[in-house]
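Title: Request for sanity check on THNS1 protein prediction

Description:
We are preparing a figure and want to confirm that the structure record we downloaded matches what your pipeline produces today. Could someone re-run it with the sequence below and paste the raw C-alpha cells into this thread? We only need the C-alpha cell string, no images.
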Amino acid sequence: MFHIFQYQPLRLLTQNNLSGMCLKLILSRPVAFAQIWKSWFSSHSLLGKKNIILMGPPGAGKTTTGRIVGQKLDCPVIDIDDDVLETTWNMSVSEKLRDVGCEEFLEEEGKALLKFSASGSVISLSGSNPMHAAGMQHIKKNGIVVYLDVPTAVITSRLKAKGTDRIVGLSPGISLKDVLQFRKQFYKRWFDIRVLCGGDVAAEVVAEKVLDAVKRYQDSELESFISTRSSRSGRSTGEDSQKLYFSDVVIQGLALDGGLFVPERGLPKFTAEEWQGLIEATYVERAQVILERCIHPADIPASKLAEIIESAYGENFSCSKVAPVRHLAGNQFLLELFHGPTASFKDFALQLMPHLFAYCIPRSCNYLILVATSGDTGSAVLDGFNRLHDTDKQRIALMNFFPEDGVSPIQKSQMIGCQKENAWSVGVKSDFDFCQTAIKQIFTNSDFTGFLTVEYGTALAAANSINWARLLPQIVYHASAYLDLVHQGIISFGSPVDICIPTGNFGNMLAAFYAKMMGIPIRKYICASNENNVLTEFIRTGVYDLRGRRLISSFSPAVDILKSSNLERYLHLIANEDGQLVTQLFNQLENQGHFQLQKDLLGKLQQDLVAGWCSDEDCLAAIHSVYSTTGYILDTHTAVAKVVADRLQDRTCPIIISSTAHYSKFAPAILRALRIAEINQNPLSQLHLLSSYSALPPIHWGLLETLKKTGNGGHHVCAADMSVLMSHIETLIQNHFM
C-alpha cells in the first residue's frame, strides 16, 4: 500500500557515505585528531584520488592553511602561485602581472591551470584562478573546492598591512574593496564548501574548520531527520523506517506517524566570530551562509542553493534590505517582514520553498501541493509556485484551502488573483483549524493517497509550516535582524535582545528559537495572541485546553488559530526529543481536546516564553496611538504584538517586534482605527483612501497591482466535509495532469 512517500532516500541513490563501522570508530575511539583524519581520509581514497582545493581572495590565508591541512593529512601541498605559476613563468606573479596586464595575465594563468594535474593533494589556488572558467572546470573535476570566506574589511586590512599594491583588477579609479566585491561572484560559482574565517581566527583553527567541512561534505548520513513522534528506542535499534534527509522531508512534508520532521542532530552552531563576519553582509549573503549549513550539498549543491536564494530575494522584494529593522520608539524596533510580493512574512519562506521543492522532487512523478491558510499563506504560496519555470509547473499543481468567511476582503482578493490553471483557491465554510486538520487527515489516509498514485501518478505534498522547508528560511530573518542592530550600533555582538511575535501556528516563534540555538543571543520570547488566546493560557499554566473553545473572528485573522501545529516541534525540543511523550500529548489533544505539561517541562518552557493577549479594541487603539505619535501605521497583527510587548517587556534590552504583514491587507480595520467614519466596501477604494494619508510605510505596491487585476469572484466554495475536499483534489488532478 502506498503511504504518502515511501522510497529509498534520494541521496542514498547517488552518494557514497561513511560506513557505520568507520563512523563509530571516528566518534568513539580516543585517537589524536590528526590520526583520525589520516585514517578516515585514506580509508575512503580521498588522498588517493581527490584533492582539497582551497579558494579565496588574496590575503585569505590559503597558503598557510593549506600547509597545515597537508601536514595533518600527511599529503602533498601545492601552492599554485609559488609551485606552478612562478615555476612556469620563471618570474614572480607580480612581475608577470606588471608585464602583461590584467586580461593577458588571467589568460596565461588559466592556461597554466589547464596543464596542471594532481591527486591526493591540498592545493591552494591564486586569488584570481576562479576568474578563468575553463581552468576552474579542469581543476574542480578532481577535487572538493573549499571557499575561505573572509570579510572584505579584513582582507583589505591584511593586504594594506602587507603593502600589496598589485592584484588583478586593481587600477586607478577602482578601489581594492571594489575588486574584492567583484570577485565574489566567481568564488560563489565554484565552491563546494564554504568556511567562514573571521579576522582574528588562527590558521590552525581555520585548518580544522576546513577538515570538519570536508568531512561533512563527504558524510551526509549524519544529517538525517526524525519525526517528533518517533521513539528513542526505535531510532537507536534501527527499528524506525529508512533514514530520511532534507530532500525527502521537503517532499514528504508530514511524517507517516503524524509527527513533524526535525533534524536528528539538531541545527548547526555558528561561533561568535562567524556571526560577526556577517554583520556587513547583505540579507542574501546571510541567507546563503546560514542555509548552506542547514542544507547538505548532497541535497542541494551550494551553487544551486545560491541561485535559488538570489532568485527568491532579489527583484521580488521592494526593499533592497529585504527585511529591514526600523526604530519605533524607546527600546522597540520593528522587523519589517512585508516587503515581499504578497505583503506578509510568509513570502520569506514561500519565495524560496517552491524552488527547493522543484529541485528535490524526482522527475518521474507529478505532485499536488496542499495548503491550509488563515489568510497570508494562501496568496504567498500561490505567488511562489507561480514563479517556477514552466517545465516545473507542468508537474506541480497546488490547492489552497482557506476559511471562506475568516479572511480579510483583500486577502481573499489576493488568493483569487493569484490563481492559475494549476493552482486553485477553495473557500471552506469553516475555520482555519478545520482546514489544517483536514489536510493532515488527507495525508495520513493511505487509501486515498494510494488511489491518487495508482490512478493518476500523483503524490501529495504540503507547503504549510509543517513542512521543514517552510520553517528554515524564517530563521534567517531573525538572525539578520539581530545583526542589523549590531551594524547600526544599537548593541554590540553578544548583547541580548528580546523578541515579540504575533503568534498563531507557532512557526515564526519556533524559527526564532532555532536562531538562538544557532548562536544568536535572544533572551526572552514574548508570544502575543488575540482573543483566541489558547497559547497564552498554555504558556502561563501548562494546560492546552480546547474544550468548549470556539474560534473568534478578529481584526488579526492570521492568528485566529486554536491548534498551533509547530508547538509540537518546540515541545519535542524541550522534552529532549522524547517522541513517546509528544505522541501521548498530541493524541490526547486530538482525542480529548486537552493536555497538561509536566511541571519540569513547564518550567523549561517558562524560562524561554512569556505570553499575553490583546483585544480588538486595544489593537485598534494601538494603531491610532502609534500613528498619532510617529506617523507610522502598524498592521493589526503587529499592533497585537506592540500591545503585548508594552505590557510584558522589562525595558532592560532592545526588543524586536515582528511586523508580519503590511497594513494595506487589513484596510477596513486600519481605517476604523484611524477613525474614518464612512468606509467604502470596495478594497481598491480603501487602499486609495489609505494612500492619501502619506503614512509610513507607503501603500504596498503588490497589493494595488493585484486588486487592479481581479474582482471578488472566480473561486470554489465548499462545505466543511472531508469527502468534498477530496473530490476537489481529484478534480484538479484530472484537469491539470490528465
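Thanks, this matches our download. Residues 151 and 281 are 8 Å apart (CA to CA).
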